[in-house]
Hints:
Strand content: under 5%
Oligomer: single chain
Order of helices and strands: HHHHHHHHHEHEE
Structural class: mainly alpha
Shape: elongated
Radius of gyration: 49 Å
Largest sheet: 3 strands, antiparallel
Number of helices: 10
Strand order of the largest sheet: 1-3-2
Amino acid sequence: MNTQSQHLEKLHEYVAKTKDTDYCLNTADGDEEYAARLSKSLQSLQIQVKQHEAALEKLRATARAVSVDEPSQDSRQHLQQLRTVTAAYKSITPSEPLLPSPDSPLPALLALRKTLNMADQSKSAITETKDKVSKSRTYLRQEEVELRDARSITQALEVRIEKLRSENEEQSGKSAEELAKAMIEEQQQRKRHYTSALRNLVKAFNKFVDEQLAVMLAAEDLGGPVVGDLVEIDEEMLKAGFNQQGKAKKTDTENARIEAKRKMRNDEIWGFEDENEHEKTGVRSEKEAALASFRSLTEDLLNAAAGDENSDSYIKISRESAAVRFLVRAKVAQFHPDDARKLRLVEFGREWDS
């Protein structure tokens, strides 16, 4: 009976929690009608439980003489056990199944519980499906990229194979002198091509340094922004100088004092200019000084890199200027690991030493 009371209490709790959701009853009359129907259903269930308990007790009383818990070794007693079990099944089989009455709220409660369970399972399935779809899309994009790469490689290899095949066919019908002449001509074409490309690179490099880099290097040396942080820098900003926050100062009207101050400052940063050049041009501008310093630095680095294998490829620098810092940040040059006063170009044919 304790088990029956527990089941009834759980049923009451479940009904109290879901009755509004099931029937949407908000009035007092509806609550009373619902409670009456529920009480009737509970009474019906209690009667059926008592009937089953009585039948169970009756079955136990008839089966006490013959225990059916374990099969007996005695054939007669074993036969009697089988007859008892058979009679029990035959008495249960014809009985009508336990079904609630048409006006009972039990079917609706069971249907609601099943629906809620299905809804929770559907939400979990949707979340899992979304994760799987996201992973599948990521995998698909990766596979598409790899497929494009594979097709590009295949196409390049096919072109290369076809080129080698055609060259082999052409060379097979030529003599040794003709092959040597063709190789010399090919080498000369390559030389002319690389010479032209080098000339264009030098022009582009000089144009970039003259028009953009020199003024930014001068600004950084004067205490202004780091190269690349501020692109729009003109020579008027360089003349005025920069404050401690790296911002350009306002232009002063005393030209003589400004020119004297500029010359002293430029000489301290980039060194003293040639006296003949000074007589021709007057005060050297900040941009010109930074440009000359950068060109001198790059020429020294190139000459040291093009020297003998046994010679030292490092050059000594007097100070860590903006040009030096720019080349190191761009991974074009690197300091000596033991002496920060030495600098060299990065050996691009080898792995860069970080």
